[in-house]
Amino acid sequence: MRSRPARKPEKTYHHGDLRDALIEAALHEAEQGGAEAISIKALAKKLGVSQPAPYRHFADREALLAAVTAEAFRQLSELLREAMAKSSKQSKLSRLAQATLDFGLRRNGIYRLMFASRTVSCAAKGSELHAATRETFALVIEALEAPAVGYLRERQALKIWAALHGVVMLAEQGLFTGEAAHATREELVEDFVNETKAALAVAIKDARRRTKAGA
Q1: How far apart are CA 210 and CA 165, in angstroms?
Q2: Residue 196 · residue 138 · CB < 8 Å
Q3: Residue 201: in which H helix or E strand, if any?
Q4: Rounded Cα–Cα distance for residues 92 and 84 (Å)
Q5: What is the pLDDT of residues 99-115, one digit of tens each?
Q6: What angle (nearest 5°) sits at the alpha carbon of residue 110, between those of residues 22 and 105?
Q7: Considering all CA atoms of the chain, what is the largest pairwise distance in Å, rounded to the nearest integer?
Q8: How much of the chain is helix, strand and coil, in % rounded to 5?
Q9: How far apart (Å, rounded) are the C-alpha atoms in residues 49 and 196?
């Protein structure tokens, strides 16, 4: 009687290692094709574990996407911190904006996972993903280097965040090259930076004048 070939042993992971491995592997897949490229079944096969194994760490695909997106935001936040900390003649906001543009164009699959899927909008307040997105937005506010006057900083931070997102997404779709305006994407982003800082300075000055007049 012919003996059966020995079954290849399933790859084993210590507690927590599989969760991290799944997130890392999913990030790699998202680099290639955004959220659509992430499949729990395919990841299990790639990592050499049984199909049920990932479900010990993630209830479903949506839970995995949330964890992967949170990690992507943490990576972006770290990149932005490094850009803001560099010694440069450029303002912190300029360095943050250019770093965001570079991240979006260089890691577009990840960027689409973060900003062009419903994963973030479905995140519950207080969740890991919600906290990661707030951390990133807090860096935009910090980069404005302006005092807190009402919610003026937050408003301008949201405006430039939206503008940066628009440039990245248009560029990714091949709809913006800068040729029509005779400007590069980087130059356009620098325009946003200058306009944002100028608008915020005027808004703060007006708010303080009104406060003083009403005193």
Answers
A1: 33
A2: no
A3: helix 185-214
A4: 5
A5: 999 999 999 999 999 99
A6: 150
A7: 99
A8: 70, 0, 30
A9: 50
Burial of 148 by CB count in 10 Å (0-12 exposed, 13-18 middle, 19+ buried)? exposed
Q: Give yes or no for a contact between 198 and 191, defined as CB atoms under 8 angstroms apart.
A: no
In whole angstroms, what is the distance from residue 162 CA to residue 158 CA?
Answer: 6
Answer yes or no: are the C-beta atoms of 22 and 58 closer than 8 Å.
yes
Owner of token pair 């770290």: 78
Look up residue 44 and give its two tokens: 């299990």
Measured between alpha carbons, how far is 57 from 63 in angstroms, rounded to an integer? 9
What is the rounded radius of gyration, in angstroms, for the C-alpha atoms of the chain? 22
**Which has the closest alpha carbon to 26: 13, 12, 44?**
44
Q: Quick: pLDDT tens for 19-46.
A: 999 999 999 999 988 889 999 999 999 9
